[in-house]
Write a structure and sequence with these properties.
Length: 450
Protein backbone atom coordinates (compact mmCIF):
# COMPACT_ATOMS: atom_id res chain seq x y z
CA UNK A 1 0.00 0.00 0.00
CA UNK A 2 1.10 3.58 -0.58
CA UNK A 3 2.48 5.47 2.38
CA UNK A 4 0.37 8.55 1.75
CA UNK A 5 -3.39 8.30 2.33
CA UNK A 6 -5.84 8.31 -0.53
CA UNK A 7 -8.62 10.91 -0.60
CA UNK A 8 -12.23 10.26 -1.58
CA UNK A 9 -13.94 13.66 -1.78
CA UNK A 10 -17.73 13.50 -2.08
CA UNK A 11 -19.70 16.71 -2.54
CA UNK A 12 -23.45 17.19 -3.00
CA UNK A 13 -25.43 20.08 -4.47
CA UNK A 14 -28.08 21.76 -2.25
CA UNK A 15 -27.73 19.36 0.73
CA UNK A 16 -28.31 21.31 3.93
CA UNK A 17 -26.77 20.01 7.15
CA UNK A 18 -30.06 19.41 8.91
CA UNK A 19 -31.25 16.95 6.23
CA UNK A 20 -29.18 14.04 7.60
CA UNK A 21 -30.48 11.77 10.32
CA UNK A 22 -27.21 11.92 12.27
CA UNK A 23 -27.48 15.73 12.19
CA UNK A 24 -30.91 15.59 13.83
CA UNK A 25 -33.55 14.91 11.16
CA UNK A 26 -35.67 11.91 12.26
CA UNK A 27 -37.44 11.53 8.89
CA UNK A 28 -34.79 11.39 6.17
CA UNK A 29 -33.04 8.04 5.66
CA UNK A 30 -29.27 8.43 5.42
CA UNK A 31 -27.72 5.24 6.85
CA UNK A 32 -24.44 5.62 4.93
CA UNK A 33 -23.82 9.21 6.03
CA UNK A 34 -24.91 8.28 9.55
CA UNK A 35 -22.29 5.50 9.57
CA UNK A 36 -19.61 7.93 8.40
CA UNK A 37 -20.52 10.17 11.34
CA UNK A 38 -20.24 7.20 13.72
CA UNK A 39 -16.90 6.09 12.30
CA UNK A 40 -15.43 9.55 11.81
CA UNK A 41 -15.86 13.21 12.72
CA UNK A 42 -18.90 15.35 11.91
CA UNK A 43 -18.85 19.14 12.10
CA UNK A 44 -22.26 20.49 13.07
CA UNK A 45 -21.63 24.25 12.92
CA UNK A 46 -20.08 24.34 9.46
CA UNK A 47 -21.08 27.09 7.03
CA UNK A 48 -20.19 28.17 3.52
CA UNK A 49 -18.97 31.73 2.97
CA UNK A 50 -21.55 32.84 0.45
CA UNK A 51 -21.78 34.21 -3.05
CA UNK A 52 -21.84 37.35 -5.13
CA UNK A 53 -24.15 35.73 -7.66
CA UNK A 54 -27.40 33.78 -7.63
CA UNK A 55 -25.50 30.58 -8.50
CA UNK A 56 -24.26 30.11 -4.95
CA UNK A 57 -22.55 26.82 -5.83
CA UNK A 58 -19.94 28.56 -8.03
CA UNK A 59 -18.08 30.63 -5.40
CA UNK A 60 -18.65 28.18 -2.56
CA UNK A 61 -16.91 25.49 -4.62
CA UNK A 62 -14.23 28.00 -5.58
CA UNK A 63 -13.47 28.49 -1.89
CA UNK A 64 -13.12 24.73 -1.39
CA UNK A 65 -10.80 24.31 -4.38
CA UNK A 66 -8.56 27.27 -3.49
CA UNK A 67 -8.63 27.42 0.30
CA UNK A 68 -9.32 31.14 -0.11
CA UNK A 69 -12.19 33.26 1.18
CA UNK A 70 -15.04 34.26 -1.11
CA UNK A 71 -13.47 37.54 -2.27
CA UNK A 72 -10.16 35.88 -3.25
CA UNK A 73 -11.23 32.48 -4.57
CA UNK A 74 -12.52 33.54 -7.99
CA UNK A 75 -10.92 35.53 -10.77
CA UNK A 76 -13.46 38.33 -10.40
CA UNK A 77 -16.31 39.46 -8.17
CA UNK A 78 -18.38 41.38 -10.69
CA UNK A 79 -21.90 39.95 -10.46
CA UNK A 80 -22.52 40.82 -14.10
CA UNK A 81 -19.42 39.04 -15.40
CA UNK A 82 -20.26 35.34 -15.24
CA UNK A 83 -16.98 34.29 -16.89
CA UNK A 84 -14.76 35.74 -14.16
CA UNK A 85 -17.15 34.63 -11.42
CA UNK A 86 -16.87 31.03 -12.62
CA UNK A 87 -13.10 31.06 -13.06
CA UNK A 88 -10.88 30.16 -10.13
CA UNK A 89 -8.19 32.72 -9.35
CA UNK A 90 -5.20 31.30 -11.31
CA UNK A 91 -2.66 32.42 -8.71
CA UNK A 92 -3.82 29.75 -6.27
CA UNK A 93 -2.69 26.15 -6.12
CA UNK A 94 -5.95 24.23 -6.36
CA UNK A 95 -6.70 21.41 -3.93
CA UNK A 96 -6.59 18.50 -6.41
CA UNK A 97 -3.74 20.19 -8.26
CA UNK A 98 -1.64 20.17 -5.08
CA UNK A 99 -2.20 16.44 -4.66
CA UNK A 100 -1.41 15.91 -8.34
CA UNK A 101 1.88 17.79 -7.94
CA UNK A 102 2.75 15.44 -5.09
CA UNK A 103 2.38 12.25 -7.07
CA UNK A 104 -1.31 11.50 -6.65
CA UNK A 105 -3.52 10.15 -9.41
CA UNK A 106 -6.33 12.72 -9.52
CA UNK A 107 -9.70 11.61 -10.87
CA UNK A 108 -12.97 13.53 -11.20
CA UNK A 109 -16.53 12.72 -12.07
CA UNK A 110 -19.70 14.76 -11.78
CA UNK A 111 -20.31 18.48 -11.61
CA UNK A 112 -17.62 21.10 -12.15
CA UNK A 113 -19.20 24.53 -11.98
CA UNK A 114 -15.98 26.48 -12.40
CA UNK A 115 -13.73 27.01 -15.42
CA UNK A 116 -12.13 24.41 -17.69
CA UNK A 117 -8.60 25.75 -17.18
CA UNK A 118 -8.65 25.16 -13.42
CA UNK A 119 -10.12 21.72 -13.96
CA UNK A 120 -7.41 20.75 -16.46
CA UNK A 121 -4.73 21.81 -13.97
CA UNK A 122 -6.32 19.68 -11.26
CA UNK A 123 -7.21 16.29 -12.74
CA UNK A 124 -5.32 13.69 -14.73
CA UNK A 125 -8.24 11.29 -15.20
CA UNK A 126 -11.89 12.06 -15.94
CA UNK A 127 -15.09 10.14 -16.62
CA UNK A 128 -18.61 11.53 -16.93
CA UNK A 129 -17.74 15.16 -16.25
CA UNK A 130 -20.57 17.72 -16.24
CA UNK A 131 -19.69 21.37 -16.83
CA UNK A 132 -22.64 23.43 -15.63
CA UNK A 133 -25.06 24.11 -12.84
CA UNK A 134 -28.10 21.93 -13.39
CA UNK A 135 -29.82 19.75 -15.98
CA UNK A 136 -32.23 16.84 -16.18
CA UNK A 137 -30.95 14.10 -13.89
CA UNK A 138 -31.96 11.59 -16.57
CA UNK A 139 -30.06 13.25 -19.46
CA UNK A 140 -26.88 14.88 -18.15
CA UNK A 141 -24.48 16.23 -20.82
CA UNK A 142 -21.05 14.80 -19.91
CA UNK A 143 -17.60 14.28 -21.36
CA UNK A 144 -14.41 12.42 -20.51
CA UNK A 145 -10.74 13.35 -20.26
CA UNK A 146 -9.56 15.96 -22.76
CA UNK A 147 -5.76 15.93 -23.21
CA UNK A 148 -5.91 19.45 -24.67
CA UNK A 149 -7.55 20.78 -21.49
CA UNK A 150 -10.18 22.69 -23.47
CA UNK A 151 -13.20 20.59 -22.46
CA UNK A 152 -15.26 22.15 -25.25
CA UNK A 153 -19.01 21.56 -25.24
CA UNK A 154 -18.75 19.92 -28.66
CA UNK A 155 -17.26 16.88 -26.90
CA UNK A 156 -20.38 16.32 -24.82
CA UNK A 157 -22.61 13.28 -24.97
CA UNK A 158 -25.81 12.57 -23.03
CA UNK A 159 -25.31 10.21 -20.11
CA UNK A 160 -27.37 7.03 -20.15
CA UNK A 161 -28.02 6.81 -16.37
CA UNK A 162 -29.64 8.83 -13.62
CA UNK A 163 -27.10 11.45 -12.54
CA UNK A 164 -26.28 9.91 -9.16
CA UNK A 165 -25.61 6.52 -10.77
CA UNK A 166 -23.75 8.10 -13.68
CA UNK A 167 -21.23 9.74 -11.38
CA UNK A 168 -21.18 7.18 -8.59
CA UNK A 169 -20.57 4.26 -10.96
CA UNK A 170 -17.71 6.16 -12.62
CA UNK A 171 -16.15 6.59 -9.18
CA UNK A 172 -16.55 2.86 -8.51
CA UNK A 173 -14.90 1.96 -11.83
CA UNK A 174 -11.94 4.17 -10.90
CA UNK A 175 -11.63 2.46 -7.52
CA UNK A 176 -11.71 -0.97 -9.14
CA UNK A 177 -8.66 -0.02 -11.21
CA UNK A 178 -6.54 0.84 -8.17
CA UNK A 179 -3.89 -1.59 -6.91
CA UNK A 180 -2.60 0.52 -4.00
CA UNK A 181 0.73 1.29 -5.67
CA UNK A 182 -0.04 4.99 -6.05
CA UNK A 183 -2.18 7.25 -3.87
CA UNK A 184 -5.25 8.82 -5.43
CA UNK A 185 -7.47 11.86 -5.03
CA UNK A 186 -10.98 10.97 -6.20
CA UNK A 187 -13.42 13.87 -6.56
CA UNK A 188 -17.07 12.83 -7.01
CA UNK A 189 -19.48 15.75 -7.32
CA UNK A 190 -23.15 14.77 -7.34
CA UNK A 191 -25.82 17.04 -8.79
CA UNK A 192 -28.32 15.64 -6.27
CA UNK A 193 -30.35 16.76 -4.46
CA UNK A 194 -30.55 19.88 -6.70
CA UNK A 195 -33.77 20.39 -8.63
CA UNK A 196 -35.38 19.17 -10.77
CA UNK A 197 -36.02 16.96 -7.75
CA UNK A 198 -36.96 13.79 -9.61
CA UNK A 199 -35.76 10.81 -7.57
CA UNK A 200 -35.43 7.57 -9.54
CA UNK A 201 -38.25 5.07 -9.39
CA UNK A 202 -36.99 3.08 -6.40
CA UNK A 203 -37.09 6.25 -4.24
CA UNK A 204 -39.81 8.25 -6.00
CA UNK A 205 -42.67 7.13 -3.75
CA UNK A 206 -40.88 6.27 -0.52
CA UNK A 207 -41.55 9.64 1.12
CA UNK A 208 -45.26 10.42 1.01
CA UNK A 209 -45.90 14.19 0.87
CA UNK A 210 -48.85 14.00 3.27
CA UNK A 211 -46.60 12.38 5.88
CA UNK A 212 -43.92 15.08 5.77
CA UNK A 213 -43.92 17.36 8.82
CA UNK A 214 -43.65 21.06 8.12
CA UNK A 215 -40.59 22.78 9.58
CA UNK A 216 -41.16 24.95 12.64
CA UNK A 217 -40.26 28.06 10.64
CA UNK A 218 -42.55 27.30 7.69
CA UNK A 219 -44.16 30.48 6.36
CA UNK A 220 -46.37 31.33 3.43
CA UNK A 221 -44.16 34.23 2.42
CA UNK A 222 -40.98 35.88 3.57
CA UNK A 223 -41.88 38.93 5.69
CA UNK A 224 -39.86 41.46 3.66
CA UNK A 225 -37.87 41.90 0.44
CA UNK A 226 -34.48 40.29 1.11
CA UNK A 227 -33.10 41.51 -2.22
CA UNK A 228 -33.64 38.21 -4.06
CA UNK A 229 -37.32 37.32 -4.01
CA UNK A 230 -37.79 36.55 -7.72
CA UNK A 231 -34.75 34.37 -8.49
CA UNK A 232 -35.45 31.13 -10.38
CA UNK A 233 -35.31 28.98 -7.21
CA UNK A 234 -38.12 30.94 -5.62
CA UNK A 235 -40.40 30.39 -8.61
CA UNK A 236 -40.54 26.62 -8.18
CA UNK A 237 -43.76 27.05 -6.17
CA UNK A 238 -46.45 29.68 -6.03
CA UNK A 239 -46.93 32.51 -3.54
CA UNK A 240 -47.92 32.26 -0.82
CA UNK A 241 -46.36 28.87 -0.10
CA UNK A 242 -48.90 26.24 0.84
CA UNK A 243 -48.43 23.30 3.21
CA UNK A 244 -49.32 20.90 0.38
CA UNK A 245 -46.70 22.26 -2.04
CA UNK A 246 -44.08 22.46 0.67
CA UNK A 247 -44.64 18.87 1.81
CA UNK A 248 -44.29 17.70 -1.79
CA UNK A 249 -40.99 19.55 -2.20
CA UNK A 250 -39.71 18.08 1.06
CA UNK A 251 -40.67 14.55 0.01
CA UNK A 252 -38.89 14.92 -3.33
CA UNK A 253 -35.85 16.47 -1.63
CA UNK A 254 -35.58 13.57 0.79
CA UNK A 255 -35.98 11.05 -2.02
CA UNK A 256 -33.02 12.58 -3.85
CA UNK A 257 -30.92 12.56 -0.68
CA UNK A 258 -31.68 8.95 0.21
CA UNK A 259 -30.90 7.78 -3.32
CA UNK A 260 -27.55 9.56 -3.17
CA UNK A 261 -26.83 8.10 0.28
CA UNK A 262 -27.46 4.63 -1.14
CA UNK A 263 -24.99 5.24 -4.00
CA UNK A 264 -22.37 6.54 -1.56
CA UNK A 265 -22.80 3.26 0.28
CA UNK A 266 -21.97 1.42 -2.94
CA UNK A 267 -18.85 3.56 -3.42
CA UNK A 268 -17.71 2.80 0.13
CA UNK A 269 -18.37 -0.91 -0.43
CA UNK A 270 -16.12 -0.80 -3.52
CA UNK A 271 -13.46 0.97 -1.49
CA UNK A 272 -13.55 -1.82 1.09
CA UNK A 273 -13.72 -4.55 -1.54
CA UNK A 274 -10.50 -3.26 -3.09
CA UNK A 275 -8.77 -3.21 0.29
CA UNK A 276 -8.43 0.58 0.23
CA UNK A 277 -10.74 1.64 3.07
CA UNK A 278 -8.13 1.76 5.83
CA UNK A 279 -5.84 3.98 3.74
CA UNK A 280 -8.43 6.45 2.46
CA UNK A 281 -9.60 9.74 3.94
CA UNK A 282 -13.28 10.25 3.10
CA UNK A 283 -14.79 13.73 2.95
CA UNK A 284 -18.50 14.39 2.59
CA UNK A 285 -19.82 17.92 2.26
CA UNK A 286 -22.08 20.14 0.11
CA UNK A 287 -21.75 23.48 -1.60
CA UNK A 288 -24.71 25.06 0.24
CA UNK A 289 -28.04 24.27 1.85
CA UNK A 290 -31.62 24.94 0.80
CA UNK A 291 -34.77 26.48 2.28
CA UNK A 292 -37.49 24.12 0.97
CA UNK A 293 -40.27 26.13 2.61
CA UNK A 294 -38.48 27.54 5.63
CA UNK A 295 -39.03 31.27 6.18
CA UNK A 296 -41.33 31.25 3.14
CA UNK A 297 -38.36 30.56 0.86
CA UNK A 298 -37.41 27.67 -1.43
CA UNK A 299 -33.87 28.44 -2.59
CA UNK A 300 -30.40 29.00 -1.17
CA UNK A 301 -30.10 32.73 -1.95
CA UNK A 302 -30.34 33.76 1.69
CA UNK A 303 -28.23 33.60 4.85
CA UNK A 304 -30.51 31.70 7.21
CA UNK A 305 -29.19 28.54 8.84
CA UNK A 306 -30.97 26.22 6.42
CA UNK A 307 -29.07 27.72 3.50
CA UNK A 308 -25.60 28.50 4.90
CA UNK A 309 -25.02 25.48 7.18
CA UNK A 310 -23.80 22.40 5.33
CA UNK A 311 -22.59 18.96 6.42
CA UNK A 312 -18.89 18.26 6.78
CA UNK A 313 -17.90 14.69 7.63
CA UNK A 314 -14.42 13.12 7.63
CA UNK A 315 -13.36 9.52 8.15
CA UNK A 316 -10.06 7.72 7.68
CA UNK A 317 -6.44 7.62 8.82
CA UNK A 318 -5.67 10.43 11.23
CA UNK A 319 -9.35 11.10 11.92
CA UNK A 320 -10.85 10.06 15.28
CA UNK A 321 -14.03 8.00 15.31
CA UNK A 322 -17.46 8.91 16.61
CA UNK A 323 -16.71 12.55 17.33
CA UNK A 324 -19.17 15.41 16.89
CA UNK A 325 -17.64 18.89 16.81
CA UNK A 326 -19.73 21.99 17.43
CA UNK A 327 -16.93 24.52 16.98
CA UNK A 328 -17.45 27.08 14.20
CA UNK A 329 -15.97 26.02 10.86
CA UNK A 330 -16.09 27.08 7.22
CA UNK A 331 -16.26 24.44 4.50
CA UNK A 332 -13.03 25.59 2.86
CA UNK A 333 -11.18 24.67 6.07
CA UNK A 334 -11.09 21.19 4.56
CA UNK A 335 -8.27 22.34 2.22
CA UNK A 336 -5.50 22.75 4.85
CA UNK A 337 -6.95 19.83 6.81
CA UNK A 338 -6.40 17.42 3.94
CA UNK A 339 -2.93 18.86 3.39
CA UNK A 340 -1.96 18.11 6.99
CA UNK A 341 -3.51 14.65 6.98
CA UNK A 342 -1.56 13.79 3.81
CA UNK A 343 1.67 15.40 4.97
CA UNK A 344 1.60 18.12 2.27
CA UNK A 345 2.69 21.71 2.78
CA UNK A 346 -0.23 24.14 3.02
CA UNK A 347 0.13 26.84 0.34
CA UNK A 348 0.78 30.31 1.71
CA UNK A 349 -2.22 31.63 -0.25
CA UNK A 350 -4.70 29.65 1.88
CA UNK A 351 -6.95 31.70 4.19
CA UNK A 352 -8.50 28.65 5.85
CA UNK A 353 -7.84 26.98 9.21
CA UNK A 354 -6.94 23.33 9.56
CA UNK A 355 -9.52 21.27 11.42
CA UNK A 356 -6.88 18.92 12.77
CA UNK A 357 -6.50 20.70 16.16
CA UNK A 358 -10.28 20.44 16.67
CA UNK A 359 -10.27 16.76 15.77
CA UNK A 360 -7.32 16.08 18.08
CA UNK A 361 -8.94 18.06 20.90
CA UNK A 362 -5.96 20.38 21.40
CA UNK A 363 -8.11 23.50 20.91
CA UNK A 364 -11.78 24.29 21.57
CA UNK A 365 -12.13 26.65 18.59
CA UNK A 366 -10.25 27.90 15.57
CA UNK A 367 -12.70 30.64 14.60
CA UNK A 368 -14.65 32.90 16.97
CA UNK A 369 -16.96 34.01 14.16
CA UNK A 370 -18.42 32.78 10.86
CA UNK A 371 -19.25 35.11 7.97
CA UNK A 372 -21.29 34.77 4.82
CA UNK A 373 -22.41 37.07 2.01
CA UNK A 374 -25.03 37.16 -0.69
CA UNK A 375 -24.66 39.56 -3.62
CA UNK A 376 -24.67 43.19 -2.46
CA UNK A 377 -27.85 42.77 -0.42
CA UNK A 378 -27.10 40.41 2.50
CA UNK A 379 -24.25 40.01 5.01
CA UNK A 380 -24.10 37.59 7.95
CA UNK A 381 -21.99 37.09 11.05
CA UNK A 382 -22.48 34.57 13.85
CA UNK A 383 -20.71 33.24 16.90
CA UNK A 384 -21.61 30.31 19.14
CA UNK A 385 -24.69 32.08 20.54
CA UNK A 386 -25.72 34.97 18.33
CA UNK A 387 -26.31 35.66 14.66
CA UNK A 388 -26.79 38.94 12.84
CA UNK A 389 -27.96 39.38 9.24
CA UNK A 390 -27.77 42.81 7.64
CA UNK A 391 -29.84 43.60 4.55
CA UNK A 392 -29.14 46.45 2.12
CA UNK A 393 -30.98 47.91 -0.83
CA UNK A 394 -29.43 47.47 -4.26
CA UNK A 395 -31.38 49.68 -6.63
CA UNK A 396 -35.04 48.81 -6.33
CA UNK A 397 -34.40 45.49 -4.62
CA UNK A 398 -33.82 44.70 -0.98
CA UNK A 399 -34.48 46.35 2.37
CA UNK A 400 -32.38 48.36 4.79
CA UNK A 401 -32.79 46.36 7.97
CA UNK A 402 -31.09 44.01 10.40
CA UNK A 403 -32.05 40.71 12.03
CA UNK A 404 -30.60 39.41 15.29
CA UNK A 405 -31.14 35.86 16.54
CA UNK A 406 -30.10 34.12 19.71
CA UNK A 407 -29.17 30.81 18.09
CA UNK A 408 -28.62 29.05 21.39
CA UNK A 409 -32.33 29.34 22.28
CA UNK A 410 -33.80 29.96 18.82
CA UNK A 411 -32.18 27.57 16.30
CA UNK A 412 -35.10 27.95 13.86
CA UNK A 413 -34.45 31.72 13.68
CA UNK A 414 -37.99 32.73 14.52
CA UNK A 415 -37.56 35.55 17.04
CA UNK A 416 -35.84 38.66 15.65
CA UNK A 417 -34.29 40.56 18.58
CA UNK A 418 -32.75 43.39 16.56
CA UNK A 419 -35.01 46.01 18.19
CA UNK A 420 -34.72 44.60 21.72
CA UNK A 421 -32.89 47.15 23.88
CA UNK A 422 -31.89 44.44 26.36
CA UNK A 423 -29.53 42.87 23.79
CA UNK A 424 -28.42 46.05 22.04
CA UNK A 425 -24.81 45.48 23.12
CA UNK A 426 -24.77 42.10 21.33
CA UNK A 427 -26.10 43.70 18.17
CA UNK A 428 -23.50 46.46 18.33
CA UNK A 429 -20.68 43.96 18.96
CA UNK A 430 -21.61 41.86 15.94
CA UNK A 431 -22.07 44.91 13.71
CA UNK A 432 -18.61 46.16 14.62
CA UNK A 433 -17.00 42.78 14.03
CA UNK A 434 -18.79 42.37 10.69
CA UNK A 435 -17.56 45.80 9.56
CA UNK A 436 -14.01 44.93 10.66
CA UNK A 437 -14.09 41.69 8.65
CA UNK A 438 -15.50 43.47 5.60
CA UNK A 439 -12.62 45.90 5.67
CA UNK A 440 -10.14 43.04 6.09
CA UNK A 441 -11.39 41.04 3.09
CA UNK A 442 -12.13 44.01 0.83
CA UNK A 443 -15.89 43.53 0.68
CA UNK A 444 -17.11 45.74 -2.22
CA UNK A 445 -20.31 46.54 -0.34
CA UNK A 446 -18.32 48.36 2.32
CA UNK A 447 -15.67 49.84 0.05
CA UNK A 448 -18.37 51.13 -2.28
CA UNK A 449 -20.09 52.79 0.67
CA UNK A 450 -23.34 50.89 0.14
Amino acid sequence: MSKQPNVLFLIADDHRASAIRAYGDPIVRTPTLDRLCTEGVSFHRNCHMGSLSGAVCVPTRACIHTGAHVFRASLGNDMNDRETLNALEPGHTYLAELFRQNGYATFATGKWHNDAASFARSFSEVENLFFGGMDSHFAVPVQDFDPTGAYDNSRQRIGDQFSTDLFGDAAIRFLERQDGSRPFFLYCAFTAPHDPRTPPQDWAGVYRPEAMPLPANFAGIHPFDNGEMSVRDEKLAGFPRTPEDTRRHIAEYYGMISDMDEKIGEILAALARMGLAEDTIIVYTADHGLSVGQHGLLGKQNLYDHSVRVPLILRGPGVPGGKQIDALTHTYDVYPTLCELAGLEIPASSDAYSLLPLMEGTVAETRPYLYSVYKHVQRMIQDQEWKLIRYSKDGEQGSDRTQLYHLASDPWELNDLSEDALVATEKERLEEELARWQMEVGDPVLTAGK
